[in-house]
Design brief:
By secondary structure, the protein is mainly α. It has one domain: Fumarate Reductase Cytochrome B subunit (Up-down Bundle), CATH 1.20.950. Helix content is 64%, strand content 0%. Helix 1 packs parallel to helix 9. The longest helix is centred in the middle third of the chain and has 34 residues.
Length: 295
């Protein structure tokens, strides 16, 4: 019962805190927009053009393509494009971790699908008479093995890279070491726990018990893995690893927000609202006069 509670609570906290952080991002005041060109949603994106280069741009319709913007975001989110272009050697190990996490997300969903499939009487195994059962089995097999291996390898190598790279070491905080160690511990415990059953039938049984709110017996390794994964899921959204929440806002409302600030526009209203905020800092710089700053 305790393990079920840990699993339910950690999933609830992960989703709940992530949604709350997204809500907080969406309600933040207007950011100091960078408008770094090319802006993908802008007409002329292919050659780096800008709407503001047009003669009398304020009198013309502003044509945008949010599909193109989303596609550029997905390149960064799914493939870490900027790191690939600027830090190729570092990209390999960083992407191993991220790809491993993506595959494990798919593996988890496949476990749910597989458990649901078996609860409905369809056998999920390598010798299943059902094409659906075979498909779920092999997809679970591939995503589970690749996800655990790549994720564990990526977390371990990133930890070592930060520890022994003379440049990165200067900028790595104790929290970042802890983050990588927590990921490594949770993923490595997954390899030890589920590696002896590469069919993942036991993992499907545990998943079936969870989705049907049924108590189940667990081995010592399974208990350790479930607790570590629960801690990891709860910790991720409250740490700097929650950057997955801010990705959209970083690109859409900071880097690529070039909506014109014209009279009567929504941007003008946001600017007025932003300028109404009073400083809450106590900086000593002469241009900042916070509530407790020296007069």
């Amino acid at each position: 019962m305790l393990l079920s509670f840990i699993a339910y609570l950690s999933i609830f906290l992960f989703v709940g805190i992530s949604v709350y952080k997204a809500y907080k991002f969406a309600k933040m005041p207007l950011h100091g927009r960078m408008e770094l060109y090319p802006v993908p949603k802008e007409k002329g994106f292919e050659h780096g053009g800008s709407f503001y280069e047009e003669v009398s741009w304020w009198s013309k319709p502003h044509e945008v393509s949010h599909f193109r913007e989303i596609m550029e975001m997905m390149k960064e989110i799914l493939f870490i494009k900027k790191l690939f272009e600027n830090q190729r050697p570092f990209w390999w190990i960083s992407y191993a971790l991220h790809l491993g996490i993506y595959l494990l997300m798919a593996w988890t969903m496949l476990l749910v699908v597989g458990a649901t499939t078996e609860l409905n009487g369809i056998f999920v195994a390598a010798n299943s008479p059902s094409i659906w059962g075979l498909l779920i089995y092999y997809l679970t097999f591939v995503t589970g093995i690749c996800g655990l291996v790549l994720g564990t390898l990526g977390a371990g190598l990133l930890f070592l890279r930060r520890m022994f790279d003379s440049t990165l070491k200067k900028y790595t905080t104790p929290q970042e070491y802890f983050n990588l160690l927590l990921l490594f511990a949770a993923l490595f415990s997954g390899i030890i726990t589920w590696g002896s059953d590469l069919s993942f039938s036991t993992a499907r049984d545990v998943t079936a018990n969870l989705i049907t709110f049924t108590n189940f017996d667990a081995t010592g390794l399974q208990i350790i893995n479930i607790i570590l994964v629960g801690i990891m899921l709860t910790y991720i959204p409250i740490s700097k690893m929650s950057h997955y929440v801010g990705k959209y806002f970083t690109f859409h409302t900071v880097l690529w927000d070039n909506s014109p600030n014209v009279k009567g526009s929504a941007v003008e209203q946001k600017v007025k609202k932003a300028t109404s905020y009073k400083p809450t800092t106590s900086w000593s710089a002469p241009h900042i006069k916070g509530p407790s700053a020296p007069k």
